[in-house]
Write a structure and sequence with these properties.
3 helices; elongated; single chain; 5 strands; three-stranded antiparallel β-sheet; DUF92_TMEM19; membrane; transmembrane helix; binds zinc ion
Length: 87
């Protein structure tokens, strides 16, 4: 597990809109790269002292972009819930 992902998960409670958006965005859209030496999927541009190749996801959608989008999504859901329940 990359350190940045566990940091994100621990920040938002499980089941919160942020955590749900984060896991969905991360799983479906976040750019992942593959090491050509050991074959592991990584988030870094290099692994095993070799450049990695793009494996899946949106190439420019890195960890920071996923963080930003999931926070925004959480905020939007919170506002919609507040409006729906008249809070
Ligand atoms: Zn490697």
């Amino acid at each position: 597990m990359p350190r940045s992902r566990s940091w994100r998960s621990s920040r938002s409670p499980p089941g919160s809109p942020e955590a749900l958006a984060d896991s969905w965005l991360g799983a479906a859209w976040q750019a992942m790269r593959r090491c050509t030496v050991c074959g592991r999927e990584v988030e870094r541009a290099a692994h095993c002292s070799r450049p990695t190749v793009h494996a899946r996801g949106v190439p420019w959608l890195g960890n920071d972009a996923v963080n930003l989008l999931s926070s925004a999504a959480g905020g939007i859901v919170a506002v919609l819930l507040a409006l729906a329940f008249g809070l």
